[in-house]
Amino acid sequence: MAWTVVRSAVGLAAAFGLLAVGSVQSPVQAQGQAQGQAQGQAQGRVDARYAVTLGGVSIGKGAWVVDISESQFTAAASGATSGLLRVLSTGQGSGASRGYVVGGNLVPASFAASVTTDKKTEEIRMTLGSGDVKDFSIMPPVQPDDERIPLTDAHRRAVTDPMTGSLVRVPGAGSPLSPLACQRTTSVFDGRMRYDLKFAYKRMEQVKAEKGYEGPAVVCAVYFVPVAGFVPSRPAIKYLVAQREMEVWLAPVGTTRVLVPFRVAIPTPIGQGVMVATQFITSPPHATASTGPKTQ
């Protein structure tokens, strides 16, 4: 039972930055406010590499590239188990999302992911519009379970896909690295389950990647709230719901108002699960001198 909980917790950590979990506003809200926003928006790119550890022991690696232009965005990620975890369970995955920038907000249009373990390969495809899931497929299909909370069409409305959900756009004109970044609840549909991630401000930290970004990060507490498509009696679900010490550290994508995970920490029964950026190289739209955080 403990190992099932550990795998689920570390998997949730990886979801924040690699296979995706939101925006400060839902896509519906973003489109509704588009008319009042300025059309010119900052552009940026981040090329990040992550290491995943459990109790200080290396168990995985991942890569994530996010591109944000004036009118659209793309995100592509890949990850794989490594070190001790490969002895117990092998796995690798990749995913990608794309969408539009509407009034400065990120509105998802499509999401796809493929995850392979030593037992099976799972393929997920999803198209979205105006914040609703228009079409999706998952192979193999979800197995019937009398205890599973049913998913309805309503659960696939006003949601984001898990990867777009990890791109946090902060409204306003002040620094995006502020408590405002944590004042949000993200509604996610991942093809199997509908859940909320509730965030709350904790503190500010200074971070430094081995290569790239050095500067402030805003730290948010994260609370996992399953809504539908899950089995309440499963130990992993119970454990994650009860957690009150999960954290995500957010850092900026260049000069944009978008933040992405730099570090994710989730306690597990056998040690702290941590995903942290070892490389976090951002590319601003124009090369200008800056007295702020280092990006190169």
Chain-wise SSE layout:
Layout: H1 2-17, H2 27-32, E1 44-54, E2 57-68, E3 72-81, H3 84-88, E4 91-102, E5 105-117, E6 121-129, E7 132-139, E8 168-169, E9 185-189, E10 194-208, E11 211-212, E12 214-228, H4 235-242, E13 247-252, E14 258-268, E15 271-283
Parallel strand pairs: 11-15
Antiparallel strand pairs: 1-2, 1-15, 2-3, 3-4, 4-5, 5-6, 6-7, 8-14, 9-10, 10-12, 12-13, 13-14, 14-15
Helix pairs in contact: 1-4
Number of strands: 15
**Portion of residues in helices?**
10-25%
Main sheet, how many strands, which sense, barrel? 15 strands, mixed
Distance between the termini: 44 Å
Please provide the ordered H/E string of secondary-structure elements: HHEEEHEEEEEEEEEHEEE
Q: What is the averaged pLDDT score?
A: 82
Helical stretch count?
A: 4
- Total of domains: 1
Residue runs with pLDDT of under 50 for 5 or more positions: 1-40, 285-293
Oligomer: single chain
Strand content: over 45%
The radius of gyration is 18 Å
Computed structural class = mainly beta
Overall, the morphology is: globular
